[in-house]
Each structure stands twice: as structure tokens, then as C-alpha cells.
Design goal:
This protein is mainly α. The protein has three domains: 96 residues; 143 residues, no CATH class; 57 residues, no CATH class. The chain is built from 16 helices and four strands. The strands form two sheets. It has a two-stranded antiparallel sheet. The protein has a two-stranded antiparallel sheet with strand order 3-4. A hairpin with a 2-residue loop joins strand 1 and strand 2. Helix 4 packs across helix 16. It is elongated and about 70 Å long.
């Protein structure tokens, strides 16, 4: 098996878009689902992802990894591998490929357009919650496609106007009737009141203050409507809707800019610090996961448990150490 410490160090040195995508709530939910489905621990799946992403394991080696780590039968290891690959790893790689700004990547522009269409038809609210670094990467994909397919922007506007995701509580007046408060119906309501021409911040502010349907909303729901309307303006009237002609601070999906020092803006997994435990025969420092080879079993477990406090509950380091503890305890 790859050395956990080295794999985590490699992971921490990857691009922030990769770290944030791997360490996202969406991936965590998929890991939990597959783990529960196969009655295994999430740690095994998390480690498999890390090893694959940094290149310390190949996908064709994953079955043997699960077989060894879980002491599983060939049949069970095959089932876990299939679920892991289909439900977690393949979608993760597709997402990373989508965010990749390299013009020579394997994903074709038609595939990217299909992903954007899916986002704007049914996954926009989920995307609103993405980290600003991820949204900035998505913006780059917008601008790349807009420069190569002049018709795609209009197609996205059409999809946005028919989006059926529920945006706020209650109902909204659209097409003269009370309808579900979807993204599409909120946009129809705004257009019916303000028209379909380019609008400025004054028009937007007036609508958010004076609209009868807005007045009954919570502060949180008002912010959601504001974000959707800003997105509509950015997309529908691009590039006129952009703040300047230089490309600086251009956005499609609205978000708050992060500091230039992105290392302070992402949940980077901290480095594993070597624990100063000496092997008397060799007089050298021993890394955490090497403890299992030099200490009595109870002492090994005690040392590893003490190390847990160094890391956040959801960190991959903690998961790795917990997995090592469980393996040792099962051998007692």
C-alpha cells in the first residue's frame, strides 16, 4: 500500500481547484452512500481517492487495494470497486476534467456544454454553494466556450428560464397565475415587471425593495433571488453586463472574490508532522504510520490515539490514523 504521509503531502501540493473538488460535500456524500451500501468504513474509500488522485495507485489496482485493506473476498472487492468507480471516482474525474483550463485536455467543448446545460437546468442551487475558487474556474470555462460558440449563451438563457429548482418558500406570480417559486418563475416575474432589456443595479434594487412577492420573503430568500437575477443579467447581456472591458472581476455565477493568497482560502489538509519517537537501535525519527513496526501493540494504539488530536475531525490524516488504529485493535 502507498505510504499515507507521502500521499497526503502530494495531495496538499495539488492545485486548489483539485483539493476543493475532492474535499467537497458532494464527494463526501457519495463516499458515505457507497460505504453504507457495502457495509464498510468511509476511511477506506477516502484513502483510495487520495492514492488515485496523486498517482500512487492506478485504477486497475483498486480492487486489490480493497481486497487487502478490507480482507475482503474477491467477489466483495469486485462489488466495492464497481460502486466506487461508477458512483464516486468517474464523476469526480469528470468534474476535475471540466474545471481543467488546459485547452489540450481530453474533454471536448460539446461535453462541457452538456455539463453547463445540466447545471443550469437542475443543479444551479448546488453550484451557488461552491467555493469562490471553483466558481472562478467555472467562469473561465464560460468565457472559453463563449469565444468559440456564439449560440451557446442564448441556449443557456433559455435553459435558465425553464429551471424548476425551488428557489424560495411560497409561490410567485408568473404568467398571470400563482406558481411554484422556482428559479424560472422568479425570472419570469421580474421580466414581466421590468421587461427583457438590459437592466442596471438601480432597477434590480427597486425590484428587490418594491416587489410584492419580494416583501414576503426572508432575508435569506431575498439574497437567493438577488443572486439569480444577477446571474441572469450577467449571462443574458454578456459582455455588456461585465464591469469593464479588461476582463478583471468578470463573473457569470455571482460570488464574493477571495484573497489572492488562495492558500489561506481553502481547507488545505495540514502536513503530518513526524512524531519524535526514537528507535533505539537506529536512533532516527519515526513517522506516525511507522509506529506500528517498532512499539508493543497497546503502545502503538496509545501513540496513534494521541496523534488524533492534532487534526480536524474530517481531515484525511485523521481518517488515515483512525483506520490504522482499527486495524491494530482488530489484531488484538
Amino acid at each position: 500500500m502507498p505510504y499515507i504521509k507521502e500521499s497526503l503531502e502530494k495531495f496538499n501540493n495539488l492545485e486548489p481547484e483539485i483539493i476543493l473538488t475532492v474535499d467537497s460535500d458532494e464527494v463526501a456524500e457519495k463516499i458515505k452512500k457507497v460505504a453504507e451500501k457495502n457495509n464498510i468504513k468511509t476511511e477506506n474509500l477516502s484513502l483510495a481517492i487520495i492514492f488515485l488522485i496523486v498517482g500512487d495507485l492506478k485504477l486497475e489496482e483498486i480492487k486489490d487495494f480493497f481486497k487487502t485493506e478490507l480482507e475482503a473476498t474477491d467477489e466483495l472487492a469486485s462489488k466495492i470497486t464497481a460502486d466506487f468507480t461508477i458512483e464516486i471516482f468517474n464523476p469526480l474525474i469528470k468534474r476535475l476534467d471540466f474545471l481543467n483550463a488546459n485547452p489540450d485536455k481530453d474533454m471536448k467543448i460539446e461535453e462541457e456544454e452538456k455539463i453547463f446545460t445540466e447545471i443550469f437546468s437542475k443543479d444551479l442551487l448546488k453550484e451557488f454553494n461552491s467555493h469562490p475558487i471553483i466558481l472562478r474556474a467555472i467562469d473561465f470555462r464560460f468565457f472559453y466556450i463563449f469565444n468559440r460558440d456564439a449560440t451557446f449563451r442564448d441556449e443557456l438563457v433559455r435553459v435558465l428560464l425553464t429551471n424548476e429548482e425551488i428557489l424560495t418558500a411560497g409561490t410567485i406570480l408568473a404568467d398571470g397565475k400563482s406558481r411554484p417559486a422556482t428559479i424560472g418563475n422568479w425570472l419570469k416575474n421580474f421580466i414581466e415587471i421590468n421587461g427583457s432589456e438590459m437592466f442596471d443595479s438601480i432597477v434590480l434594487a427597486r425590484y428587490l425593495v418594491d416587489s410584492k412577492d419580494i416583501l414576503k420573503l426572508s432575508v435569506e430568500d431575498k439574497e437567493k433571488v438577488k443572486k439569480v437575477l444577477a446571474l441572469y443579467r450577467n449571462l443574458k447581456f454578456f459582455p455588456e453586463s461585465m464591469p469593464n472591458d479588461t476582463g478583471e472581476n468578470w463573473q457569470i455565477i455571482p460570488y464574493v472574490e477571495v484573497e489572492e493568497d488562495v492558500e489561506e482560502s481553502i481547507p488545505v489538509i495540514p502536513e503530518i508532522k513526524d512524531k519524535k519517537v526514537r528507535n533505539k537501535s537506529e536512533e532516527k525519527l519515526i513517522a506516525p504510520m511507522e509506529l506500528a513496526s517498532i512499539l508493543p501493540q497497546d503502545q502503538k494504539i496509545k501513540e496513534l490515539k494521541e496523534m488524533l488530536n492534532q487534526y480536524p475531525p474530517v481531515s484525511f490524516e485523521r481518517l488515515a490514523i483512525e483506520q490504522e488504529i482499527k486495524k491494530l485493535e482488530n489484531k488484538k
